[in-house]
Write a structure and sequence with these properties.
alpha+beta; 14-stranded antiparallel beta sheet; 3 helices
Length: 285
């Protein structure tokens, strides 16, 4: 009985202090001018070589910050323009240890990030992206004029930091299409367009290990594996994918099979090079 009284005596002040802190932070955030928050963020981004601006910025109840018509980019270069950006602290996220929540929209494209409390150096997080085209990212990670491109219907990755290997996570991506140029002068096919693509992958340190790729090429089934190294630094990342095209019956590949050999049943497509300017190579067997 005495222990219960002691517990209640300590529990009530703690709950009261937490409630007071919640109310105080909510009122402070709601009354703080949006431009003041934006001004405090600019020096942090400037140290990393980035600039940020917005047509309007405001705080929202209980603890959130919202920007409309925002522009984010590297100094002196064309910025990435976003319709809306909203960053908030959600207490319910503490149950999953992912209370920091950011959402952004750009036309039809949407992105959502949830991270652990130290959002500036998160121990774990989750990223969801919808309806994103390769050219949407051109201000930050421009694709060279090579014909490479993609349209991501949806993608999700979950990660956490490990002491030994850095980032460790898993994810999945579904693409409407992925286009890769074939620059080999002797190749009769100048580009490969793979459709209805599903990719399963694991994040290991700075590498993205692709355990499964499935899709279609000119109606034929495609499957394979691969790896992207230095995925956290797109301008320096390299890609290696090995894809098998099974028994194509139509399109340019099927025509080549008829010309080469009646016994040819399959083709392989090897995609290599820089992540932002990959190239492909066909082989038949």
């Amino acid at each position: 009985m005495t222990r219960r009284l002691v517990l209640v005596r300590w529990l009530l002040p703690v709950l009261g202090a937490l409630l007071f802190l919640l109310v105080f932070l909510s009122v402070l955030t709601y009354t703080l001018p949006g431009n003041a928050v934006l001004s405090s963020v600019r020096p942090v981004l400037a140290r990393g070589g980035f600039e940020i601006s917005a047509a309007s910025a405001r705080t929202e109840f209980p603890i959130a910050f919202r920007m409309e018509d925002a522009a984010i980019g590297r100094k002196g270069k064309r910025p990435l323009r976003l319709n809306t950006v909203r960053a908030s602290w959600e207490w319910t996220g503490l149950l999953r240890w992912l209370p920091f929540h950011v959402t952004a929209s750009m036309g039809k494209a949407k992105a959502e990030v949830r991270t652990s409390p130290r959002f500036w150096n998160p121990g774990q997080g989750r990223l969801i992206i919808e309806s994103l085209a390769g050219e949407d990212l051109s201000p930050l990670v421009p694709f060279p004029v090579s014909g490479a491109g993609f349209f991501l219907d949806s993608g999700e990755v979950r990660w956490r930091k490990s002491r030994s290997e850095g980032l460790d996570g898993t994810g999945e991506g579904r693409f409407a299409w992925i286009r890769v140029p074939i620059p080999e002068p002797t190749s009769p096919i100048r580009e490969a367009l793979i459709e209805d693509v599903t990719i399963l992958f694991a994040l290991r340190g700075e590498s993205l290990v692709v355990s499964s790729i499935t899709g279609t090429y000119e109606g034929a089934r495609v499957e394979g594996t691969g790896e992207i190294e230095k995925i956290l630094f797109p301008s320096r990342a390299t890609i290696t994918l090995h894809l098998k095209i099974e028994n194509p019956l139509e399109g340019k590949i099927a025509t080549i099979f008829d010309l080469l050999s009646k016994n040819a049943k399959n083709a392989t497509l090897r995609i290599t090079g820089a992540l932002l300017s990959p190239t492909g190579e066909f082989r038949f067997f």
